[in-house]
Write a structure and sequence with these properties.
heterodimer; A: alpha/beta; Rossmann fold; seven-stranded parallel beta sheet; 8 helices; about 15% strand; globular; B: alpha/beta; 7 helices
């Protein structure tokens, strides 16, 4: 019997693939057979992602990208069309994070995060949908939201607001994509606390922080980048062909409401 | 993906339970499929092959559950429980008796409750003091979030199962075990259950429900089976208390 979880023969874009969750998704997708276009700002780290893909026998390209530049999105899609042809899967994963009490958050802080997390995701989904519609691809698009896009997280007003926007963006994009022939599916992935640089850079790599990451979720274990990559694989593949518009929560039970 | 795992699937003789059994077996699991429908069980056995064992089981009967667990835990541990058996009584409220309402709750909620409770005890006992590991999957419905005029008994019974999923996920985690509890909420899928709710032949129905669904089509039984395989496997090891909506976008858009 065939395996619907495979990505054999697919072309996948993963933004923010130079570290953490994005790198793990890029590597897992390549391992499952996809040709991966990995993007990010840092060329050295991008090269490391491609190296890891290739050393596991996969195929990947790096494209240096500023996700906040619309011009750069147009260049990326020109690159994809020249290099690989038709995109089947896109994970709009790149994003940023900071923690500050609301009263200490300036409008500049807020707007900076909004630009990276929301404006850039909007551009990414817009260009991907247009490409998939034009190419008549039964595509799957994912945006990286957060549990913080569904419930509040202390001292993270800007982040929570931006991720709530991204969750909703995915639902309306799903509605639009469903009208295409063939339909394009769009889902958000909403991770809980996942042990990556995004957490340790902001909060430090201490036992207290790790305890916070573990104790707050029902499973009392640390979420790993591979857990999100596996959810992305499921949503990217034919195994999830009837799932669209969902906020796919992978949080160890932290947000069970 | 499920090599070496053992699973119990209730309602395995038809529809979603049959597809789930076949897919779990295809991914390498040994499946104990339970049902009251023996002809259907034979069909599932033919589709799933040697890794499938059929047991007669009415989920509302405690002694039936005991027999199922006796077989499942005979040689050590059982890793996966799929509470799939369910009924869809679409009688509207003026015609629905309290007995009918109770019957929906007995099959869709109390059966899974009794089975899950006993399953957890068995899993813990089999773990012998070590952290117990298991994945429990409840098949609920889009009716948990969306309602329809004929969901008087079906909706509440499934909604309660959806809430039980969350309550158990939180409770299981806090006991220091690694027992995950998730649900799948299917949208409309053509199965003997959904065919049976209306005497009008399938082809002659108005299918107006499809207008509510962004993907404008029914789901396939395998869509549910793949979600079940994912939740049963280590690929979802950081997921608990979640309901996977497999409904063409109906509940989210």
């Amino acid at each position: 019997m065939s395996n619907p979880m495979t990505l054999e023969g697919r072309i996948a874009l993963v933004t923010g693939a130079t570290s953490g969750i994005g790198r793990e998704i890029a590597c897992l997708f390549a391992e499952e057979g996809a040709v991966v276009i990995a993007t990010g700002r840092n060329e050295d780290e991008g090269a490391k992602t491609v190296e890891r893909i290739e050393s596991a026998g996969g195929k990947g390209f790096f494209f240096q990208q500023d996700i906040t530049s619309e011009e750069n999105w147009a260049e990326l899609f020109a690159f994809i069309e020249n290099k690989t042809g038709v995109l089947d899967i896109a994970v709009h994963n790149a994003g940023a994070f900071f923690s500050k009490p609301l009263t200490e958050t300036s409008v500049e802080d807020f707007n900076w995060l909004w630009k990276v997390n929301v404006d850039a995701t909007f551009l990414g989904v817009k260009y991907t949908l247009a490409h998939m519609k034009k190419m008549k691809t039964a595509g799957s698009i994912m945006v990286m939201s957060s549990l913080a896009g569904l419930i509040g997280l202390d001292d993270c007003t800007a982040y929570c607001a931006s991720k709530a926007a991204v969750t909703q963006l995915a639902k309306v994009a799903a509605s639009e994509g469903a009208t295409y022939d063939p339909p394009v599916r769009v889902n958000s992935i909403n991770p809980g606390v996942i042990w990556t640089e995004m957490i340790t850079k902001e909060y430090g790599d201490s036992p207290e922080v790790k305890a916070f990451a573990m104790d707050g979720n029902a499973l009392q274990t640390v979420g790993e980048a591979i857990d999100i990559a596996n959810a992305a694989l499921f949503l990217a593949s034919e195994a999830s062909g009837y799932i669209t518009g969902s906020a796919f929560v992978v949080d160890g039970g932290r947000g069970v409401d | 993906m499920l090599e070496g795992k053992k699973a119990i699937v209730t309602g395995a003789g038809s529809g979603l339970g049959q597809s789930i059994s076949v897919r779990l077996a295809a991914y390498g699991a040994t499946v104990i499929g339970t049902d009251v429908n023996e002809d259907g069980q034979a069909e599932t056995k033919a589709l799933a092959g040697g890794a499938f064992e059929a047991l007669h089981h009415d989920v509302t009967k405690t002694q039936d559950w005991d027999a199922v667990f006796g077989a499942a835990f005979q040689e050590g541990i059982c890793d996966i429980l799929v509470n799939n058996a369910g009924i869809a009584d679409m009688t509207t409220i003026p015609d629905m008796s309290l007995e009918q309402f109770r019957k929906s709750c007995a099959v869709n909620l109390l059966g899974p409750f009794a089975g899950t409770k006993a399953f957890i005890e068995r899993v813990r006992a089999a773990a012998g003091g070590q952290p117990a590991q298991a994945s429990i999957i409840n098949i609920t419905s889009v009716a948990v979030k969306k309602t329809f005029p004929i969901y008087t008994a079906y909706g509440p019974s499934k909604a309660a199962l959806g809430n039980l999923t969350k309550a158990l996920a939180v409770e299981m985690g806090r006991k220091g075990d690694f027992i995950r509890v998730n649900a799948i909420a299917p949208g409309p899928i053509r199965t003997p259950m959904t065919e049976g709710v209306d005497p009008t032949p399938w082809e002659e129905r108005d299918h107006r429900m499809l207008q509510l669904i962004p993907l404008k089509r029914y789901g396939e039984k395998n869509d549910i089976a793949e979600a079940a395989a994912f939740l049963a496997s280590e690929r979802s090891k950081f997921m608990t208390g979640y309901t996977v909506p497999v409904d063409g976008g109906w509940s989210d858009i």
